[in-house]
Every structure is written in structure tokens, then in C-alpha cells.
Amino acid sequence: MAAAVQSQLCKGGRMGPPGHGENCVGPRPLDPPMESELGKARSASADVTKGSWAKGSGFPGSCPSSPLLPGYPARSSAGSTVAVPERGDMPELVVTALLAPSRVSLKLLRFFMWILVYSAAIVAAAVYGCIALTHVLCRPRRGCSGRRRCAAPACLVDPTLGEHGFLNLRSSGLRLHFVSAGRGNGPLMLFLHGFPQNWFSWRYQLREFQSHFHVVAVNLRGYIPSEAPKDVDCYTIDLLMADIQDIILGLGYSKCILVAHDWGAVLAWNFSVYFPSLVERMVVVSAPPTSVFQDYSIRHIGQFFRVNYMLLFQLPSLPERLLSTSDFQILKSSLTGRKTGIPHLTPCELEAFLYGFSQPGGLTGPINYYRNIFRNFPLEPQELAVPTLLLWGEKDPYFQVGIVRAIESRFVPGRLEVHIVPDAGHCIPQSHPREMHQYMWAFLQDLLD
Predict the structure, then answer these.
(1) Phi and psi, residue 352, nearest 5°
(2) So which residues are the catalytic ones?
(3) 74-75 and 81-82 as β-strands: parallel, antiparallel, unpaired?
């Protein structure tokens, strides 16, 4: 049975100002099979507080649930009619007894999974602790904490990239920061970034496609200056997908071209499954669907070691301290390293990524994404059908190229176009923008015609 999206509500009411709110409100429960029909009838789900955008009118007051289907007669192989009892005919006690073994097995599986995860997290913490200590000893003047950046670097406010604004999301009440350009030039092209980056990672694409599309790059929730609730429960997949829905409808569109990288790609895969009517095309870079990653990692243990930082991030508080040690040196190494980093990243561009993380609580929100990643284990396989362009780096240090075949096996035939970019690492939008743009223009050509 396919897994349904279950809306999880964070404790409390609406959030306060950025950096101070720990509570948020989740979306109304939504029955995924009915999404495509309901989505067409919804009006804009967010109000724009800056810029010349249309004000949304929100969700309908309620979401109807699917009625129980009556017990239709079934034909046997001999042609005789066999009566199928209705669900209500079976006593609740019997149903509970029949499901008990499966529930116990699932709880045991999750229990042992968490033991394994936290054991590995302690090992990862020891390794990253040694790395952080080495940085402190090599650069004692930087100290054991990160320096707060008081002013945004010039490249982060470059007017050629677009106009800055905020959206008030209908479902959660959060304010998300975005940069927009090319309004009125065509369909909406929405960009979702990864970690440890922000909207600025799409600077090349914002310039390239604003002549034919309305390009919008957002700072996802938790990434300052977007609001950043501290509660881990405010970063579940279903709440993050509701944010994407609110952004699309709040900007005044009924669908979009979704372009996503890393964590943004993880959200995009899920969004395309449960909200297909809102996605016309998808461009995914360097990240698999979570169900594919789960199955592939079980069969290829080497893949799990490539993302060992995910295990570290399961621990409370410690990851934030380690990443900020010696003025965020671990993050700097990740962004500028020969294997993991972005080639030719200038000091100003590096500061553009560090600016938000250096603010009080700036690392907690982004790391909370990872603290929810094992919550729904084990995951059901998902069938993927939205027309998608998948770009993958031949030398990606985090994800093996073999995952691409696993993704292809989940797709409806003819809906996926794959390109392995030679000599590329993980950050293709910034390291190989020309190649990415060529593939995207070809993939979207029929929409322009």
C-alpha cells in the first residue's frame, strides 16, 4: 500500500519574528490521491509582503476525505460471484490482532535502526571533533566559535540577480525570503537550493533564464533571512512540501518548472509525487529520491560512508558547535575543497554562503532537515512520472553514479532524461553552468515554442 503524506503539526501557534519563534503551524491534513484535483481548485496560498505580486486567497475551509468504497462483488475464476465483506463486518479486535505482528516487527526494525544510527553518529562525532580540534590548533586566533557577519557581502545584494522580497505562507505563517527576476517573461521557474548554500547558488541560472521565464530563487525555511523555527518537528518533509505549494500558488501560478539541487532536489522528488499538478517539468541536480537512496545504500554500504555527515547531524547541538569552530572552517573547507567544493569560488561568494549561517541560530534550521531524514524509515518505493531532466556529476563525492540507474528503474518510461556531466562534482549549477544551461534549454524548448 502506498504511503500517504501525514501532516505533522509543530507545537504551539504562529511563529514570532525570525530567530525567536520555536513554534509553527503545519498544513491541514491532505489526502495525496486527491491532491491533483484539489490543487486545481485552490487559490493562491501566500501573501507577498514585498514586490508587486498578487495577493492569494488561501485554502478552502476543509479538505474532503475519500468515502469508503462499498463492497463490490468479485468474480472468481469459474465465473461465479463471490461476496466481499465490507470493512465494517470484521470486528475491530480481530483486525488489531492480525496487524499486531506487523506493527511489532516494524517497531523492532525502527528500534534497531536508531541504535545503529546513533552508534554511527557517535563515531562520526569523534572524527569531526578531531577535525575541528585540528583547525583550532592550526588557527588559534580564530577561536572555538564562529564570527558573526554584521553586513551582507556586496554580491549577495547584486541588483542584476533580481529583486528581493518576502512571502507570507498561508499554511505555516512563515515568511520566506526570495529573489525574483523576469516577471511577465514566461512560465514560473522555481529554484530550490541545497546545504550548505542558499538562493545565491542559482546566480548563474537567474541571469541565464530571466529573459524567457519568471525566475524565482527562495531561501528555504530555516535559512536566514527566511524565518527559522528551532523545533525539529518544524522541518518534516510534509511541512517543507507545503511550503513549496504555498510559494507556487502565492506567486500567482498554478504550476511551475521546478529546478532543484541537493536538499532542494530531495524535496522536489517528493513534491512531484504528491503534487504532480503543480509541476510542469522538473530539473534535478545531484540528489536521489529518499526511497531510492534508502534501498541503494542498503545494497551498497560504500554509499552510506560518503554521507557520514548525515549521521553526525542526528545529534543535538554538537553539530552546530563543530561546524562553527574556527570561524566555520569545516563549512569553508566543504565549499572550497578540491573534491567537495565549488571551483573558482571568490572570497565574496564564500561570504555570501556563510553570512546566514553566522547569524544566531543560523545553523540549527538547516541541520534540522537532516534530523528528520530517518523519521519515516522504512520508505515505500515511489513511482515517478513528472517529465524530468536529471543531471549528475561524474565525480560527485557524495553520491555514486550507480544511483542514477536506480532512479531510472522507478520512472515511467519516456519521462526521464539523464546526463552524466564529465569531470563534474556535486555543485553542477556553479561548477558547470554552461553545460547545465545547454541541457535545460534543449529540455524546455517545446515550452518556449
Answers:
(1) -65, -35
(2) 262, 370, 426
(3) antiparallel
